[in-house]
């Protein structure tokens, strides 16, 4: 067992993985958004419009934490010389916020290098026109040159998406903190106001909200895609505020209560899962993205009503186990994009278009939280199984690639090394196998792209003022 064999240091293995991912990005796709590791060229996602360098900005803090000093220095120089937001491009406000703003903020807080603060605030200012809607609920897409916004054409009746407008809070509070400009924090506090006024069906938050009318779209509820990080940011807003944001806290624990009542179910085989809610009907499907919730429940256990702390930890452990099963029940020991609990199947993908794995971090993220909060060795064991599977099936000559079907015995690679693989998957593995005093939870809160942001203590504001 590797845990008994001290020569085989798993934290060192995750550092080697980072080196392989980064060196190949540098060799074949430097300055572009992402790497195609099979064709050995750049990959561009329309999420970033024609802003470039997503992998560089997303990986800055991972390089820093892993003490890859040369690589960090090169990345910083690229940001100084080449990171340019003056482009005529339509971007995803959510993706650019969590990857670029989040990446720059944490690089600044870790290294103290002024260029990162300056670029983060500059980009934050470019995102502000997204909030120019009748309600102040931001558009999903924004042309950062013209300032014109719109929503995804497929989203229910022109709605904005809960997980997108609900996942700006941490970064925008820090932008206000670092710029001295209150407008950023005001924009995200207003989103809260709109949500508080609305009736919640069964106490649940639908995934769609119309930014013009301020009314919900379809009553679909998900703790996976379209909903996920909204809930995470309620809890983390409270933690990041040094537990002073009582509104965020109450919204989080109330939401968890509704989720437990209406969405959390147990399969006949005893696996706890979180179903999706479609206007009152349950779909017994859980997405890979939903697996982050195990870590969230455990992280929030400490602040839960006193009789509920153990229950929240237990809930986290049960979700972790279900998600581990979704990995274990595939040929490749890597989890599918979504898995079902119906028609006699449990924790298995039944549809071809749900069998892929794109190097996602959520299951490993939950292992990391569960390890830190319980120190049960199985979480490190499960993390190591994921390392072995990644090395066996996703590592290629030119980096790491996603897989089209994790139930197949033969790899069909999708040829994309996602920027979040370096930002999240490898960082969470490294933290899982490191000591707890590396980025301790009492001082740091991770944004949904795994970028650490410091807890803001009540006297911090004055300290900033005095430094000016």
From TrEMBL:
Reactions catalysed: N(4)-(alpha-D-Man-(1->2)-alpha-D-Man-(1->2)-alpha-D-Man-(1->3)-[alpha-D-Man-(1->3)-[alpha-D-Man-(1->2)-alpha-D-Man-(1->6)]-alpha-D-Man-(1->6)]-beta-D-Man-(1->4)-beta-D-GlcNAc-(1->4)-beta-D-GlcNAc)-L-asparaginyl-[protein] (N-glucan mannose isomer 8A1,2,3B1,3) + 3 H2O = N(4)-(alpha-D-Man-(1->3)-[alpha-D-Man-(1->3)-[alpha-D-Man-(1->6)]-alpha-D-Man-(1->6)]-beta-D-Man-(1->4)-beta-D-GlcNAc-(1->4)-beta-D-GlcNAc)-L-asparaginyl-[protein] (N-glucan mannose isomer 5A1,2) + 3 beta-D-mannose; N(4)-(alpha-D-Man-(1->2)-alpha-D-Man-(1->2)-alpha-D-Man-(1->3)-[alpha-D-Man-(1->2)-alpha-D-Man-(1->3)-[alpha-D-Man-(1->2)-alpha-D-Man-(1->6)]-alpha-D-Man-(1->6)]-beta-D-Man-(1->4)-beta-D-GlcNAc-(1->4)-beta-D-GlcNAc)-L-asparaginyl-[protein] (N-glucan mannose isomer 9A1,2,3B1,2,3) + 4 H2O = N(4)-(alpha-D-Man-(1->3)-[alpha-D-Man-(1->3)-[alpha-D-Man-(1->6)]-alpha-D-Man-(1->6)]-beta-D-Man-(1->4)-beta-D-GlcNAc-(1->4)-beta-D-GlcNAc)-L-asparaginyl-[protein] (N-glucan mannose isomer 5A1,2) + 4 beta-D-mannose
EC number(s) from the headed UniProt entry: 3.2.1.-
Keyword Disulfide bond: yes
Keywords of this entry: Calcium, Disulfide bond, Glycosidase, Hydrolase, Membrane, Metal-binding, Signal-anchor, Transmembrane
GO terms under biological process: carbohydrate metabolic process
Entry binding sites for Ca(2+): 448
The protein's annotated pathway: Protein modification; protein glycosylation
Calcium found in the keyword field: yes
GO molecular function, one term: calcium ion binding
Active-site residue list: 95 (proton donor), 228, 337 (proton donor), 362
A cellular component term, taken from the record's GO annotations: extracellular exosome
Class of enzymatic activity (EC top level): hydrolase
Protein's job: Involved in the maturation of Asn-linked oligosaccharides. Progressively trim alpha-1,2-linked mannose residues from Man(9)GlcNAc(2) to produce Man(5)GlcNAc(2).
Family membership noted in the UniProt record: Belongs to the glycosyl hydrolase 47 family.
Protein name, as recorded: alpha-1,2-Mannosidase
The species this protein was found in: Lophotis ruficrista
Organism taxonomic ancestry: Eukaryota, Metazoa, Chordata, Craniata, Vertebrata
